[in-house]
Amino acid sequence: MEIPQEIDSYIKESIDDTLGLPVSAETLQLKLRASEDTLHRLHDQYALLFQKSRQKDQLIHRLKAEATMNFMALKKFIEENQRLAEECANLVSRCQNLEKKCSLYENDRELLMDFANEADERATEAEIRANQLEEEVLKVSEELKLHKHFDSPAERTDVEACLVESLLTTLVSKDEIEYGHAFLELLQAWDSLSPSTQKVLSLATNVNNLQKEKELLRTNLAKAEQELETFSRGLNRLNYLRRNKRKSIDSVRQPLSPLRHNSPNGRRMHKK
């Protein structure tokens, strides 16, 4: 295979130049053009590398700024998380206190309900007993009316019957002044009264005492019902507050949204 004449001449001229022999101007011109071409290529490569270096510097600057912003956001997130943890602990403590108060109110409510039921039962028993005693008083009064004709002193029987009738009438009408007057008159003549009359007076006194006890029990029952209603309202209020506190605690415990990247280049870098 034969070498082209131009290449052969170039090789020969290169050898002569290396050996220090004179070289033709054409060969030097070719070398100059080759050097210029190489210089242009190096200049283009330098410009390209410089542009890429500037892009890398800009990217590094953006990444540093994004890292700084992410660090500040992370720091703020940590501080917010600590603050929410403290608030959550305070809410848990308050919730525990409210639960204790609710437990105490529940116990008080049960005690009041038991007391109200007991008072109601006692009032019912007293009313039944009062009705029974009233029936006994009526029976004794009828017996007294039957036996008054057989007593020897007619005047004393008439006085006793009038006083007993006055006392019974006063007991039914509940007039304290007339009842006290009749009672004093009977008390002065107690020793001279017949046993049936004394029994009537004793039964009347028991009936009056039971009626007073019944009224007192009704008053206590009404007060207990009012207190029970007040405690019920307070307990409902505490239950409402406790439900709200638990809802707020659950909302605080929800996870926060993740941090977002601040630049599209940063998102592309994370995707890579």
UniProtKB/TrEMBL annotation:
Residues 74-143, 200-234 form a coiled coil. Residues 251-272 are annotated as: Disordered. Keywords: Coiled coil. This is Uncharacterized protein. It comes from Erythroxylum novogranatense.
